[in-house]
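Support case: user asked for a sample of complex input and structure output to validate their parser. Sending the pair below.
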Amino acid sequence: MSILDWFNKKEKPEQGIKKLDIPGDLWVKCYSCNSVLYLKDLVANSKVCLECQYHFRITPQERISYIFDHGSFTQNENQLKSIDFLNFSDTESYKKRLEKATKKSGSIDAFVSGKAMLSGQAVNVGIMDFSFMGGSMGSVVGESITRLIEMAIKNKLPLLIFTSSGGARMQEGILSLMQMAKTSAALSRLDSVGVPYISILCDPTTGGTSASFAMLGDIIMAEPGALIGFAGPRVIEQTIRQKLPKGFQRSEFLLEHGMIDMVVNRRELKDKLTLSVRLLSPKFSGKQGKR
Amino acid sequence: MSILDWFNKKEKPEQGIKKLDIPGDLWVKCYSCNSVLYLKDLVANSKVCLECQYHFRITPQERISYIFDHGSFTQNENQLKSIDFLNFSDTESYKKRLEKATKKSGSIDAFVSGKAMLSGQAVNVGIMDFSFMGGSMGSVVGESITRLIEMAIKNKLPLLIFTSSGGARMQEGILSLMQMAKTSAALSRLDSVGVPYISILCDPTTGGTSASFAMLGDIIMAEPGALIGFAGPRVIEQTIRQKLPKGFQRSEFLLEHGMIDMVVNRRELKDKLTLSVRLLSPKFSGKQGKR
Amino acid sequence: MIIKPLEFEKPIHDLYIKIDELKRLSQEGQVDLAQEIKKIETRAKTLKKEIFAHLTPQQILQIARHPNRPDSFSLANLICDDFIELHGDRHFRDDPSMIGGMGQIASHRVVIIGHQKGHDTKENIYRNFGMPHPEGYRKALRLMKLAEKFGLPIVTFIDTPGAYPGLGAEERGQSEAIARNLKEMTGIHVPIFSVVVGEGGSGGALGIGVANRIYMLEHSVYSVISPEGCASILFRDTDKADIAAEQLKLTAKDILELGVIDGIVKEPLGGGHHDWHCQAENIKKVILKDLASYKRKDTKEITEERYEKFRSFGKFMDESKTIKKGD
Amino acid sequence: MIIKPLEFEKPIHDLYIKIDELKRLSQEGQVDLAQEIKKIETRAKTLKKEIFAHLTPQQILQIARHPNRPDSFSLANLICDDFIELHGDRHFRDDPSMIGGMGQIASHRVVIIGHQKGHDTKENIYRNFGMPHPEGYRKALRLMKLAEKFGLPIVTFIDTPGAYPGLGAEERGQSEAIARNLKEMTGIHVPIFSVVVGEGGSGGALGIGVANRIYMLEHSVYSVISPEGCASILFRDTDKADIAAEQLKLTAKDILELGVIDGIVKEPLGGGHHDWHCQAENIKKVILKDLASYKRKDTKEITEERYEKFRSFGKFMDESKTIKKGD
Ligand SMILES: [Zn+2]
Ligand SMILES: [Zn+2]
């Protein structure tokens, strides 16, 4: 099975790790090719299926460990917390949802940022956390991203942001929408100081996230098979009243349509990022990341 | 017959005025709708067919009389003459062709430029002459256009160029190709001084002319039904081995495809140009051209 | 022109029908019903005031989406002495759901850009119900750059259910087009004024809405998602759109309170769909005032102001001690 | 690898076949043919020199279009220590007939852009025979802007029969895309170096060719129109392509004489299609020299120089007395 096949096989592949009925949690099954994998091997392979190259969704912490120099990540100490300022309540109040999400993920919100070393080069890093309310962008996520960009403007170090988000956080109404403009505006300032920004699109990146900072990288990379688009597939299907073609809105589709620079297997991501940062950033003349 | 129909009727409508067998040259036949027209009426109508709105090809002198204030045009005194520097000879030598063209058209080459008044506003004007070797752009045309642009950079008056040209003048080899870059480079300088440039695409505008200054107007207008494109229809048909769809590469097609700002009937061209120049040019606050 | 009344407009509409009837009787039967008519007219006006003073978000949404609501192109023409439409993104297509052009408002030359809806089915199909494809946003950006080059202030009219969610739109980079606009608009050297004239739907609205001054018409809405979409996703029940409309806080009053807009533009009593000229006049007044006051501002002031405006959006608790808000 | 010889390469090819045969005989039959082999080798080399010293324009055209001629992507990879390909115009499509990316040549970081042909039918169909659509030119421009932003010099490799003359290409603005590039390249703040590595076909070639320094490989061509096209249009006889090739003055030597290029890059004897590494080395040397010397130039110098270069192109008689050449 080729790298490109897996998303054609299943329309909506289940994410995460499915545990098998074998005691000890040592074995897992790939959601794409159904291969049974030894968990240690899978982790050693950056949670990319060894059989079909399916990219499992991972936490920001896992991502940090796969990409950046060991122990080099220092998290930004933004103690920002979301507020339910609209008293928003659907099937559940926003306040409750926030509490639950925090409990479940252990994070305060859907964005982790800080500084890390990439093959010896200091960079600014932001990572969205899809497991926290679908990585949705409310005021806190928008503010954290903006502060990260401002940090890059100040320290002149390259900026990498890994996206995975369903879009704006509806529970914050119009102010969540405005985070799109806020983050994009900050990137316009980053432009003017000539600091490189690389965005890495991970599964899924849609809605307001996709239509703002995600698509504004000087270089845009995507993990294989990631869903990337403005409108979600379900909305489009409802609008056009037909099934979407296979592979629609996947990374490879975006590459073909000229929207991204490259689709990069997670296992090669570190090297590609290192090289890109080195070529865009005059300060980085180290050759540690050379292939 | 609507304005848009005429080019669908004939694939390659004959241009110019067809004289009828009636003595005195008072009557002509429209090539598009076959209506018999009184020549004086046709001229009074800016050589636009009174029945079908077909736009006859006209000379630079006619165009000047239709668009600019009476007697206001002063021609630039560039005494540039083309040279057959490659000793180019196909079925006839370039030298001979130049002589013939000059004799036939009374012009020295395929571009007329100067200053004129547009509803009381002084403007820089350039007009290509299709009757001189198909309006092809050699060194002289390229140099004249460049000098006109440089004049606009100096005198800060709006620039209008009416195009009609089959493209580069092959008989001047690589140097004719370079006129594309030369004229476009000059327009890049015009940009930086903020002088408005309006290009008006007339039938036909193809090849190197289309792929340089013609498509670089701050505002781009086109006369109805003008053939505008990079490759000529015959070349495309040979390449794709099929007939081109009706209306392909015509002004209206380009409008639909986002390439031009408007299709303007020759009889409304003066007003639209006046208004556009007024809105783009702070110096021009006169209201003479107001609709 | 008499317009099919909305549900809550019916009591008013009924009174006007009665007035018309009495007027006819007056003329035919030579009965003098002037006093009677005047009484009902007063009642109608009072009723109108009362009803329009207590509109629910759902009702406001209906007005904002009213088929007869003044469209951007008409407003541009009503506001300008001269308006000349410009077309095309220079890449792929001229998108009819986004209009743009140049015009003169009193002594001010401006570029006007706006989402364009239709007023009937045929027009709406042509205008794609005001839902732009990427080329619409690219055309808008092209015209903004034109405005910047020639120092013309920009006015944008927001009126869209959202950017179009379709195959071609995704293929041609709807996300890229909107993102690009958000970023580029930040740096545009001329002042930008935006008015939500009808429906301000999500990223598709914001895509031409990064402005120095933002206004909403009295009965317009601005929302991160349509109430229907919100109901379907969060409430898992499309019938709950009414509740979603309340929760989302999408009316002009709400948005003003949230600090996102600078003011509310009055509509004629009964809503802009009954009087386009009056509506255009009200908008013109606001825009003219801004045009005059921004004439004195320089490029840096203009771009800084716009940046700071959007930089400030967001409500959250900041418990950090060491890190301060960046500039 | 033995490549199918061109017609005029056959005499050389025949000698090499003989040499191979003699070598085989030497090994098998234990006969010492070393002297004989050496003699033929010398003869082959002499013959090669002689033939390649007197190539007709039509023969040079054949080499320039040779299916095994080194392509832009391979050259980029051979010249750079690291080359990372970048994709897409961010509007419509990634055009495989135009490649681009970043790389490092010795200590210099550069952006490389080039037309991309294939070496067999399958590749050529994928690469559209090196004929870009508008999105190819837009991708090139995007990468040039990226280079400008980060201060990377730009190297372009020209190798195209021309921009593609097809329906989609016209619909999406082939003219606009090329015109835009000509204008934008004029103002790019970083130095641009172009090398015609194969076929420099018309506006489609020039669309990435507005450079500070322009070179041609020894057996490349650069022309306003293909000889075939010229023959068809001017001679009204497609069989007259040979004559057209002569008339058009499209060889490196001719173009250098006309003052359009700054130098000719040597090919390995027998043509670049026989030795990609040597070809890449020769190009690298020239580029490296330029990269070093342009490091000292500032933005103004770089753009002025490029402007003046193109401003000067053209041969004509100037009989004017009052008007002088503008600056
Ligand atoms: Zn698998
Ligand atoms: Zn007619």
